[in-house]
Design a protein that fits this description.
Helix content: 10-25%
Structural class: alpha+beta
CATH class: Mainly Beta
Strand content: 25-35%
Number of strands: 11
CATH superfamily: q2cbj1_9rhob like domain
CATH architecture: Sandwich
Number of helices: 5
Radius of gyration: 16 Å
Oligomer: single chain
Number of domains: 1
Largest sheet: 11 strands, antiparallel
Length: 197
Amino acid sequence: MAEVERLEKVAVRRDFTMASMNHSPRHMTTLGGHVITRESDLIPHSYRDEALITWLGKVTGLKAVGVADPLERHVINILHRQGDTHGAHTDDYPLALVLVTEAPSDPADGGLLQWAPDAAGLNALDTAAVRHAHHRPGDGYLLRADTAAHRVTPLRRPGSRRTALNFAYTTPDRQGPVTSSASQLYMRAGEAPPHTG
């Protein structure tokens, strides 16, 4: 939690709608994996932990491996203003292990995870299939993020915050991103794409 808080000083504010995800909103502050790797030893070391990756494989039944893309393998997403939201989307990679370091104490204040498993599209989030979860600081969850439509609901109260560290994992045959959404969220203006490896 302290490491995520320390890294917030180099994060970048984002306010836009993402065309590739039904023009859903992004009002948040983010930090991409390439910057995290440069600024932190702890997070990349934790991401590569062999016991963690083995556990992910056992839980999911997938051959879990790390993501080659340095931009997206581990990211930090911070909602910290009233109305901040991480709008509807699916991820490029199958597994998202999300560690929540800050969250509103009252679910009525927003910042809830909404998801629809095995969704045919992002509109599934507006149907009876949608599920909701409130998380507290220190909670974590594992999501099949490439097939579950998901979003984080807007913060409703001034002063509320929701901060999450997301570890993305994939399978050996799924190493390329399928959308440009990560570069829109985690690249800085004028920045060259980081080297994959």
